[in-house]
């Protein structure tokens, strides 16, 4: 699968600190009278048209995971089917208060409303800094920039937060706890759907020290949305990603070679499989390419929490899911923190990181 975006201009090499060099896309987008986008953000090829706008994602009722044995088994079956057929699904009845999600989203909006100078304080210098805010994805290697600002926070096992706006830290702490719990329950269910003991991942990967990252993405209104890109096609590095948004669409995923829109049910979370679940399941469940497109009607904000193994873990296919003859391990192990660094220091491009550790079939 090749990416559909190609560059037209080649701005000079950016520094690691993108805000100092380029400023936020929010600042540019809010310029009065902006009617076209600068070449720095212009792609020559539009994103492929959506092929199947009506297709909708599987829906999983989270509350049934703790239902009676019949309900539990039914939802495990649904989880397995969703993971295998889509790699993406929506979760309802998850028990995370809607008021908490809304407050977290509006607190992130307030963060992006800070001045550039205030945000630069959180810019970070290295991709593994636990607090990092910036624009695009990695401006030091990109030829054309993405129409996106971000804030990335390592929230587990150590909790890191910004202190502006007021109250952000407390909200994030509660949000991280609730999303982390939901993520662990989902992982147990998914593990069971693979035919493994529900606690297999927890034990084998020492998930007491699991690494969670929160990524807040801001995609301001764009006067030429068909020429810009919020985030290019990519897969996520972790085990699972749990995503919510401010009610404005833009997330698309590749399903059966067609891009489909994700239209989340209100008060649901969108879950997708990351590269490390693909590795652990020896390719039975695959991480799925997704991207974020932009629009000229409303600013979009998405909040993604990536749940992964501890940073020093080396994940390999579960021995019970491999067979030396018929299904040998298809990926070599790499330390999780090195895998993240590999993704974050390169261009965000398809499944290029996973491809590096795939063992070719003989
Ligand atoms: O904004 C979105 O919906 C997608 C974000 C995303 O893919 C990511 O943060 O990895
Ligand atoms: Fe993603």
Summarize the structure.
The chain is an alpha+beta fold and 362 residues long. The protein has helices at 18-22, 25-29, 69-85, 98-112, 116-120, 168-193, 200-204, 275-280, 336-345, 352-357; strands at residues 59-61, 88-92, 131-135, 149-156, 211-219, 231-234, 240-245, 251-255, 258-261, 269-273, 290-292, 300-308.
If you had to describe this structure to a student in words, what would you say it looks like?
This protein is of the alpha+beta class. The protein is built from ten helices and twelve strands. An eight-stranded mixed sheet has the order 1-2-10-7-12-5-4-3. Strands 6-11-8-9 form a four-stranded antiparallel sheet, with no helix packed on it. α3 (69-85) links the parallel β1 and β2 (88-92). α3 (69-85) crosses α6 and α4 packs across α6 (168-193). The radius of gyration is 20 Å and the shape is globular. It starts with 17 loop residues before the first helix and ends in a 5-residue tail after the last helix. Mean pLDDT is 93; it is low at 1-15. The structure holds 2-oxoglutaric acid and fe (ii) ion. Residues 215, 217, 231, 236, 243, 251, 290, 292, 302, 304 line the site of 2-oxoglutaric acid.
